[in-house]
Amino acid sequence: MTVFQITGALFAIVALFGVVNYRFIKLPDTLGITAVGLVICLALSALGFYYPRMAEVAGTIVPKVDFADIVFHGLLSLLLFAGALHVDLSRMRTQRRAVFMLATIGVLISIAAVGAGFFYVTRWLGHPVGLLWCLTFGAIISPTDPIAVLSVLKRAGASENLETKITGESLFNDGIAVVAFTTLVGLATGSSEFSTAAITIDLLREVAGALAFGIVLGFAASLLLRGIDSYPVEILITLALATGGYSLAEALHVSAPLAVVITGLVIGNHGALTSMSEKTREHLFNFWELLDELLNLVLFGLIGLEIIALSLQLHIVWLGLASIPVVLLARGISVAIPLLALQNFRRLNRHSALVLTWGGLRGGISIALALSLPTFHGREMLVGVTYLVVVFSLLIQATTLGPLIRRLNR
Asked: pTM of the full predicted structure?
């Protein structure tokens, strides 16, 4: 198929999923389209189990696709920018301590807890995976999806403070988790040696450099946008920021994902208020929301192709089901410890902890990281388990989060 044919097929599929969601499922558009896509991929995966010919065809296609290049040098920059663009920074300042603790200490706790739990689960089910790869899985599954959870929270009438905590954490933990992911993959593959001092210095350099670079790039782009009143041109500028800024950050050896997040925050707040007309803001935000939906569908399609090639083997299904409570428990621990620390060990608000735990939805970023894993013994298993955990997150957690919040409010 040509690029034009692939693009046309993609738009037709997205439109169909949108119609199905609007008429029958009635979830928020972003979440509904993703959920329908997940169900279709899951159905195709199940068919691949009963019709090995499908797995053979997918197996001939998968080796021809450079998932790591597509994800890290294409989709990831756009997904992160889209998520950052929709966050209200003024509201986040009121919860900055909670957001910071959840997105840093909380992510590290989650990575360690998921990694340790998954390490024992794989041994218990007779498919052991090395500890470093289990910790890598923890880094894959720890970031949460800001777009999916925000749409649910707005419908459910969650408090502003709770909404800010969840969306702010979801945004920043992407960058932290990606840095942890690349570090752990380097250690697991042997391309880098373990040294606490060296790892700490590298992390600080990447994070601090990304913060400075993202701020400078964001404000420079805001000045450029100020002299332009054409939303097509301004949309193109933001596309250049997301993709070109990501590539430049990589060249400067700072965290490209975090740099894109910071740039998106600056453009979505300072740039949108000082450099854009109301019409431009509306078109720009609608464009990036639609692009986020399309990119998530592409990601789920890519991982669906991999799962079909695997024929969704039974041991992967069992590992995925066993990993779901591990991930939820780790999420609960990673939420409770920072919140307790912030409250000086006073009584923890159980409702906030519960909603933050159940509202930690996994989405496109986790799938992007899973697809970019290098080849090793157990890679297919990690990809499959990631897929199943994300399926549970978006089909079960997302659909029940709204009723949970409304019940707690009563």
From this structure: 0.81
